[in-house]
């Protein structure tokens, strides 16, 4: 006797997002879109500047250019889908795409942690005044990850976790280029040099 089972195949995940209120979704979209664009422009610009400027061809800046590229990868893995969901009002993601997104983000995040460790080793031979920006980045990144994954089970709050996730997937990649370039005289000098040469061409 044949047994017939009624099965439903799951092909996608429904993404709940931050809120179901349409006005708040659009407000969040208008907040996160400029942040995403700043992250892309800042990280890509920093990586290109380091590769193009001869004065920045040192091991520290080699690591920094790769850190900028990893920040770019992690932000571009998550933020576009989040922005699309906020703009459309509701969203879903196919299971293979979700797996690829998780794998890409995990690989970029792991590479970023390794780069930060390598940069810390490179900077231990330098003056303490140059370590401030690096300590800021490490503190913000690891502080966020510790808050997210090493807290007691009883403190779990879905909304807090969503905002924390956005912090380390969108906010930190946006802040890193500013933190490293604003405190760094070599990078500021290279930017001024490129801007002045651009003005002379026009």
From TrEMBL:
Subcellular location: Cell membrane
GO terms of molecular function: G protein-coupled receptor activity; olfactory receptor activity
Domain G-protein coupled receptors family 1 profile residue range list: 42-123
GO cellular component: plasma membrane
InterPro entries with a match to the protein in the record: GPCR_Rhodpsn_7TM (IPR017452), Olfact_rcpt (IPR000725)
Membrane topology (UniProt): Multi-pass membrane protein
Annotated keywords: Cell membrane, G-protein coupled receptor, Membrane, Receptor, Transducer, Transmembrane, Transmembrane helix
Transmembrane spans: 26-49, 133-151, 163-182
Primary localisation category: membrane
Family indicated by similarity: Belongs to the G-protein coupled receptor 1 family.
Protein name, entry field: Olfactory receptor 5C1
Organism this protein belongs to: Ophiophagus hannah (King cobra)
